[in-house]
Structure formats: C-alpha cells, structure tokens
Amino acid sequence: MARYTCPSCGASYNGKRCRKCLYQHFTEEIAHGGHVHEGEPLVIDAPVRKPVKRKDPFGCEPKTRKGLKLTPALILTVILLVNSTGRLIYSFSQRMDSSNSAVVHAQREPVSFLPEGPLLTLGGNDEITILADWKDGQAFDGSFEVYVQNDSREDVAVTAREVIVNGCLLENTSLYCTAYAGNGSPSFGRALFALDLEELAYSGIGAIQEITLTLEAFSLESYETVLETDPITLSPLFPEGAVLHTVPDGVDVYQEDGLRLRYLGFVPQEQHPEDILTGKFLFYVENDTDVPADFYTPEILFNEEVTASALLWTQLPPNTRTVTAVYPYGLENSPIQTLKDLETLSFLLEISAGGNNKTAQITIPLN
Questions:
Q1: What per-residue confidence (pLDDT) applies to 338?
Q2: DSSP letter assigned to residue 18
Q3: Is 359:350 a contact under the CB 8 Å cutoff?
Q4: CB count, 10 Å around CB of 173?
Q5: Which letter, b or e, does each residue of 299-314 get, where b requires 16 or more Cβ atoms within 10 Å of its Cβ?
Q6: 99 pLDDT tier (thresholds 50, 70, 90)
Q7: Residue 348 to residue 145: CA distance in whole angstroms
Q8: DSSP run (H or E) holding 92
Q9: CA nearest to 195, candidates 106, 264, 131
Q10: Which distant-in-sequence residues (6+ apart) come within 8 Å of 82 by Cβ?
Q11: Residue 192 CA, distance from chain mean position
Q12: Beta bridge partners of 361
C-alpha cells in the first residue's frame, strides 16, 4: 500500500519521489498569513499536471476585513471637522485680504530674453543665475525687478528667505520667480521683489538705508534646494538727515539683558473694524545681543480663560528686531467677538538666546 499521495499530480507513491511527476517531498518553514507551516508542495515540470485548486493550500481560514461602522459619534466628528475647516479657510482668506491690502503684489512671468542695460548679479551657480535691475545709490520706491536665467533641465523657483531692512527683520516681503527648464538653451523668468509698505510703517522704519536679503532657488519637481545665496546687501539712495528707524509706540511687557517684547496694539480689518476675528495683535520684538534669539508662546489666553490657537513665535538674528502679528484664531465659538469683549491677554513667554533659556508670565490689560 502506498504511503504518500503526491500533492502535485495526485498519484500514490512510496519512497522519496513520485514516479509519475518526480515530485520530491521536503520540509521547510514557510511564512503564511502571519504564521508558519512545515513543508510546501513543490511542483516540477511534468507531461501531466492537475489544475491548481482555488483554495488555501494549507487549509487556513481566510481573514476578512471589518468594514467601517457609521456610529453617531463618528458622524458628529466628521461634521465638526468639516465645520472647523470651513471656518479656518474663511479666516485665512480674510487674513490674506487684510495683509495684502498695502502690498505691491508679485508679478511673475517667463521672458524670452534679459533686458538691455547693466544688471546686478545676486547669486548663481553653473546652471542658475539670479540678477536684479538694481544699482546701489538709486532711488527705491519699495520694489525692483528680479530675473532668473535657468540653464538646467528642471523648472525652478526663486524666493526670498530672509529680508532685513535697516536692521529690522520683515515677515511680509514678496518674491516668487519661476523659470522653466532650459533644455539646451537658456530660459528666463521675471518677478517683482516688493516690500510691504504697511509693515514698514508700523515697524517704525523711515528712509531705507540698507536691505539685506538671502535668496533660495528650489526645484519645482522635487522641491529640493538647488541654490542658496549668501546674504546680499543693497544700499539705495539715503537722503541726508533722514530718520533711519524709531521704536514703535507701545507698552513694554518684557525687557531684560538686551531682549525686549513690546505690545503695540490691535489692528482691525478695514471692512470689519469691530470684528476681532479678522484683525491682528502687533508685537515689537528686539534682540540687542550678539547671539540669535527665539521668542515663543505655547498658548495665548484671552480673558485668562479662553484659549485660542494663537501663537507668537519669531526667530531673530543677532542685533535685529521685528514686528510680528498674532492672529486670534480659535475664537469663533467663544463669547469674545469684538475688542470690547476682550479685557486681558496672558501667556507664558519662552526665550532662548545663546543656549540660555528664560521664561516670564505676561498679562496685558486691554481695557
């Protein structure tokens, strides 16, 4: 009587091999569905072979996937997420409309050639060159044109990473210049570098004496940086006796060891002067030390109770200052809707400068 049944052709056999299809038994641990089995059918070419059965060769029970059950809690969560997303998009659009009201908007377009006349080279490498229609000592009205020559085989974009005017770090400068792939011949792009005139005003900047900026070019396919310039200094025409900079009026809420935080006030949106949700709170931040400094608030309390998703966070190079805005996101469903409803701002201020960490509890009365 035969001892084995061939798993390949179904014939009975004794010994190590099936005489019909030459199948040979072996033992091995085989991973299968998160566990292991001993042995596996080995099918060897033979003139006659039975069709493979459509079932698990080891007889394991198939695993079934559990479907997502719609519960009242899940439905409520989805509704709240959709509602919050809509409010966030509305607040962001209102913020952009407000912040761009006094900005010279960026223009970007491909050009077939560079303009005639001398251009200042701001930076470049073997494939990308960044130039500007600029000459030191010229009058400056807040903007100038930037050109990008692209000899590489991928589309690139150029942006301004850090812009400092008269020692004041600006947050709302505008530059975004695209240049398509050269593919054997140079390709050019043009854009307008523009400062936010409103930001210059509430930062206390008078006549512009010096502009320092760092430019970055990145691939529009991989978004990897392909060029980063050293800090570039531009010196426009500076009238003799003009005011360079004044500290904006406000209330100092922190000042120690060359580090200062000053509350400047609330700036409403022109279309909604009474609406606190579309306005912004301005703070003057100063780092009068020789090391970089970070100013950060984990959260901001409104009337010492209502917590909104509003943060103050700025990173200052040595001996620089800035004016930063705090937007009161997260107050849509709170009783605070106008400035009259708001009595205090309070937060924990965290400062890191040169490896030294400091904290201070700040409360600002607004009434």
A1: 84
A2: -
A3: yes
A4: 21
A5: ebbbeeebebebebeb
A6: very low
A7: 42
A8: helix 72-99
A9: 106
A10: none
A11: 22
A12: 348
